[in-house]
Every structure is written in C-alpha cells, then in structure tokens.
Design goal:
By secondary structure, this protein is of the alpha/beta class. 48% of the residues lie in helices and 9% in strands.
Amino acid sequence: MKMPANKQLITPWIVALVLITIVATPTMQQLRGADDAYENISCYEAKRRLETDPTIFLLDVRSSVEFYKGHIMGAVNINVYYLVSNHSLLPVFPEESSRGIIVYCDNGFRSQTAAEKLLSYGYTNVSNIEKGFNEWLKLGYPFVVGSETIPITTNIAWRPLTVTGLFTIILGFSLLIIVQKVRKR
C-alpha cells in the first residue's frame, strides 16, 4: 500500500527534526556547568580512594544478576533503571550531599546515567569509574562473588516497559553516545 504524497513529505521532516533535537540538545551536565559535573575516574583512582577514605559510598548500578556474579567489596547494588525512576531510594544514600559517592557499572555507561541522576538529587561529590567493573577485573583488582551486601533492588527486567520509558532510555543513551563521540574529537 502506497502512502499519500503529503505523508511521504512529512515523514522525513519528522525524522530530521528528531535527529536535530537529539544532536543539538545539551546534556544536563553541560547545562549545569563543569563545577557541578560528576568526575570520571580510573579504576586505579577509585581503588586508591576506597582504600584511603572509608566514608565513600560505593554504588553498583548493574542488575542484581551481574552484582551476584561479582562486584567490588562494600558496594551497594541499585539497578540504574530503578534509580532513575524511583525517588523513594533517597534514604538509602548518604545524608550529607558532599559525601563522596563512586558509581560503577560494567563499562561506565549506565553509571554515567546514575551519576547524572545523583547530581540532580543534589549530591556534589560524585565520581564515575570510567571503564567500569570490566576494567577493574582486567587489572586484577579484588572483588567478591555473591552478596556480601544485600542488593537494594532486585532484577527489574520483568517489569513492563512503557513506550515513554523506552523512548527515554533510547534518547538518554543516544545523547550519551553523541556526547562521548564529540568529546573524543
């Protein structure tokens, strides 16, 4: 079945508008400015901080399944998708907004989303482990298997995903990828 001519003309414009919006929209980090941004840190720096500062709140934002397979000792597990959609988790986090929080996932992308969310909650000392748990393992740093700490959220993969939620996730990850590519230039 052939589309009417007016719809054939409108569709490319809608696609172009969506793409321009994605490319041109600054991330929340860019809007806030460099002073209010989270810090990307190496595994080495994260390990050093964890060894020297016992007050750091270590947050693993992977799924509970990934967490059980292995995680950095002392980490609290809150799935990133649950974190970004559930404000009731705030009591789990440190009361002092300036307390150090280190966030990680397997490769550093989901934890960027979590770091942005923590900044929006008012935390000011947030760091993201740049290459995540995969790099931590590659470097031979210590980790634990199982759950020496209890995950705050269970695996939420079974929860129904709304169209709005899916669009938000796709848009968020698209922006992260674009920003990363622009930064590398």
